[in-house]
Amino acid sequence: xxxxxTIAEMGPRDGLQNExxxxxxxxxxxxxxxxxxxxxxxxxxxxxxxxxxxxxMAGSAGVMAGITRREGTKxxxxxxxxxxxxxxxxxxxxxxxxxxxxxESFSQKNTNCSIAEGFERFAPILEAAKVDGxxxxxxxxxxxxxxxxxxVPVAKVVEVSKRLYDMGCxxxxxxxxxxxxxxxxxxxxxxxxxxxxxxxALACHFHDTYGQALANLFACLEEGxxxxxxxxxxxxxxxxANGATGNVATEDVIYMLEGLGMTTGVDLAKLMxxxxxxxxxxxxxxxxxxxxxxxx
Length: 296
Known about the structure:
Layout lengths: L5 E4 L1 H5 L9 H12 L5 E2 L2 E2 L12 H7 L10 E2 L3 H9 L4 E7 L2 H8 L3 H18 L2 E7 L12 H14 L3 E6 L6 H12 L7 E5 L6 H11 L3 E4 L19 H10 L8 H15 L6 H5 L3
Parallel strand pairs: 1-2, 1-9, 3-4, 4-5, 5-6, 6-7, 7-8, 8-9
């Protein structure tokens, strides 16, 4: 089994979307470019969503127009519907992402539609993307717990993941949106999903609310997952999940992986510099333990 792990950097989208301080397009462009400059192969650059609902994602077309696209780096964007897809295509996106949930209540709160209605929205995106030669990544929220329903049946996670994969998503990102998972539950969930979706098409997207994200990732690495979503300096949270912290910090993930003898192709020292810079820009504390430990 390969020792290389692909890091999918979520900072510019999942990380920034919940920041309270307004962030201008120039800062977003600089963040994306600095991250790609660290050797990250996947930097989620923005989201073509209504600025009414997600104000921090306004200007994503400007971000896509302003970034310097590095060879070897992909710049996906989130697209909840055909309007978003068309705007992303116009902006030159080569990968778009759709987002569903394994929890009915969370789906209603997050996207104002049921799980079934969500799939109806995804279908035309996937059909258009196939014609346009654009890849589609699928996100599944609440795979290890829901802020409204509590425990989420693993069978539902499998069902939603398999349906997204069968519809044409090249990769399914399994999200512990509120960070309540523990290693045993994460392992069992991944095994169940991998029984219906190839492991090579799965990614883990774990938030660190309870401090379990690295342990959960280690358990999933042992099962064979080789794509990890993370966010520089642990930026982020969830507007629909009170108390949820950001995605696990990219620096902490890479430090763990390097300690395991695994490779990512990412320059950790450069990434820590980006972490310090964006934390300063946002007026917040550094959220990565590794960067904190190495910052005087």
